[in-house]
Specification:
The protein is built from two helices and four strands, in the order βαββαβ. The protein is of the alpha+beta class. Strands 2-3-1-4 form a four-stranded antiparallel beta sheet, covered by helices on one side. The longest helix has 18 residues.
Length: about 120
Amino acid sequence: MYLIHAQLAAPEGSLLPCDAAAAALVLARPEEGVEHVSAHGDGPRGPVLGVFLLADSLAQAENRTAALCERLLTRHPGFRGWSLRRAEAPFLAPLGHGLLGPPGRPTGGPAGRAE
């Protein structure tokens, strides 16, 4: 299973439609392997859909997510003027470092205690 983040670009002043995740699930095709979609309108780089799906490779998962998002942006009236910036797996830092850092030692050692 893969988690792919689809970063969206919204027209000025637009908010992520409240039914974005549900609408994406409805548009997902069985062969795309989509298991779950979550929507986050306030991501650090703008609105994002988190798509959990089964695929044979990361590239396939990213391509399927991009195709799903293009269908969503084309067919859902609340996405008029929106575009897909990218559909990629998010980078995750090692346990204890938080999302993408900070660099240095993790907060918990092998015993799970801070050193």
